[in-house]
Amino acid sequence: MDEWSSHGQLKCPKQEPCPMADETEYRIEFGPYTEMPTTFARLRNRLKQTDSNAEVLFGHHERPSAKHMITVYDEHINRRARPCNQELPPLRKWNLFRKTWQPERNDFPLTGNPTNWGLANWKDSQHYAGIRDLLEAYKGVQSDYNNSYINHFKKQQNLRRKIPCYLSKD
Description:
Layout: H1 25-29, H2 39-50, H3 54-58, E1 68-70, H4 72-76, E2 93-95, E3 100-102, E4 110-112, H5 119-139, H6 144-148
Antiparallel strand pairs: 1-4, 2-3
Main location: cytoplasm
Function: Microtubule inner protein (MIP) part of the dynein-decorated doublet microtubules (DMTs) in cilia axoneme, which is required for motile cilia beating.
Subcellular location: Cytoplasm, Cytoskeleton, Flagellum axoneme
């Protein structure tokens, strides 16, 4: 009867915490490599050593981020021409270390002002023209609600938010 509580439920024996609870088999067999820091630690240390912003470290060919990069899609599909000062180098050479032809077109992206090719202006004009047409069409519509609506002026509205003194207990 001592295994059962007064409510008829089975009592669990009190268990002490296992001293090796955090030491799983995976952690024992595959421990972390402490000889080499992680990539995040290396990057953080590099930023601290150079005392420079992340923009400088991650910048593309040291160009300021204020200049917008124009995509390859914009260059090929929309046939956006390269300006004279942004021409590609004439010859590509095989880079043995990277095993690629260098320089690539992606290494020299176009920079310039962002373009939407007039799409945003056209969409805005189309949208506002539709709204103007609806408003003009609605002005002439007469309905029972419009005819029976009484315009309430601000002078007639009670803007007081406090309970009047004659209603309060004070």
